[in-house]
Amino acid sequence: MPAQRSHTTAHPPVTAAQLRRAARRVLLRNWTGASTVPSRGLYPHQWSWDSAFVAIGLRHLSAARAQRELETLMAAQWRDGRVPHIVFNPSVPLGAYFPSPDFWRSSTAGAGAGAPARTETSGIVQPPVHALAAWLVHRADPATSRRRGFLRRLYPKLVAWHRYLTEHRDLGGHGLVSVVHPWEPGMDNSPAWDGPLARVEPADPDSFRRADLAHGAPTDRPTDLDYARYVRLASDYRDHGYRDDDAPHPFAVEDPGVNALLIASEHALAEIAAEIAAEIDSGSAAGRAARDGLRSAPDPDVHRARAARLTAALVARLWDARAGMFLCRDVRAGEPGGRGEPIRERSVAGLVPLVAPGLPEEIAQTLADTLGGAHFGLGDTARLAPSYDLVGHAFDPCRYWRGPAWFNVNWLLERGLREYGHRARADALRAAVLTHAVSSGFAEYVDPRTGAGHGAREFSWTAALTLDLLAADPGGGGDRVPGRAEERVAAPAT
């Protein structure tokens, strides 16, 4: 496939019904029969947080298919609770994607950590948005969900997933989750990782062959040096059996986005626990099945308490009042055994905590102000929130996570703005996401100032989250309701 570069075209306005049909076609094309690939070219396997966002959109087309999306992913969960960031499709040739299954060697190298014996996966993880996705999928069709036992089957897996993060990944010792590879927070190439990555010895460039450059312009992708460091981190983790207690983890960062999504998902787990407990109390056949399949009745208060502890740690460790946002913290920087050091780069991950319920009111307001200020420019110099500081030294509107706007992040910010009462701003962001989804051909990411598309087209989470926003009532709260077919979505020239 030739490299895909940004393009500028004019599109006439389309109705919401037309956009809905176009988004649906993308998801149908990318469906494999059990899950959805992010794109048919560059990403031919199942990705963890992609599937969570895809399920959120699929619920508006088929609740059963959305449930299956998450069930397929969770079937590849490791015995230690981790949900791998890639589940490999054995029918895809090894050369189609790197790092491929023969690099990760999960079923052998990861056997001691409980990797599946018959399914090949990666050994690292991605942000824990899955419980939030499961709860939203359930709400789309509670009857089908209860009949299929969706929540009561997924709940123990989600609990184990969160337990892995809180027990195995608190590398700083202060109650927050650390990521151990730049691919884990999902914002692979963020300038926030440049400092911690500089400590990593790059892998020999002759030891691997990048597949991503065949599908995207090299100027849009990570550099060869960064990629060599990614490979080194992943291979060293593999060679330590993916055991967090044994691996040295030279890259260990507390990321506010990852921790905020864990908080949001703990709140979702509380809702799921309450739903299952109600089923058990009802005495129905579903309730008896739920009771028999669980060691004990789920307790929503356990999850609410954990969410509160995580929120307190997030504020104590990562909030920076001078920056007006949360900052990542490099756990390995500074004195051995110390608190680590904040990373003074403004990544959009520091605004993602808007999606977490329960923030102090003044912090939530400051985050909203920062989102519209000079550094992120939303509603002023930026059409969509950029992934990195617009005036930062490393800003690049085209290069992967060093400035481009991503639809999943903007979906989270729209939800967060609505959560904290900024309805007009949420409505404006919703309209902008829909506009640039259609004008970019459901691009992987876009220039935040012009909306020009970059990366893969017909990208699954872009299409899925378009469906979710189309199902939103712009005048209401955060609930999703059937969209209006007559609503028009502007698609200006870019």
From TrEMBL:
Q: Where is the Mannosylglycerate hydrolase MGH1-like glycoside hydrolase domain?
A: 43-462
Q: Which InterPro entries match?
A: 6-hairpin_glycosidase_sf, 6hp_glycosidase-like_sf, Glycoside_hydrolase_63, MGH1-like_GH
What does the record list as GO biological process? Answer: oligosaccharide metabolic process; protein N-linked glycosylation
Keyword Ion transport assigned:
no
Q: Kindly indicate whether the keyword Hydrolase belongs to this entry.
A: yes
Do you know which Pfam families this protein is assigned to? MGH1-like_GH
This protein's UniProt keywords: Glycosidase, Hydrolase
SUPFAM superfamilies attached here?
Answer: Six-hairpin glycosidases
Q: Which GO terms describe its molecular function?
A: Glc3Man9GlcNAc2 oligosaccharide glucosidase activity
- Report the family membership: Belongs to the glycosyl hydrolase 63 family.
PANTHER family (UniProt xref): MANNOSYL-OLIGOSACCHARIDE GLUCOSIDASE
Protein known as: Mannosylglycerate hydrolase MGH1-like glycoside hydrolase domain-containing protein
Query: From which organism does this entry originate?
Result: Streptomyces taklimakanensis
Taxonomy of origin reads: Bacteria, Bacillati, Actinomycetota, Actinomycetes, Kitasatosporales
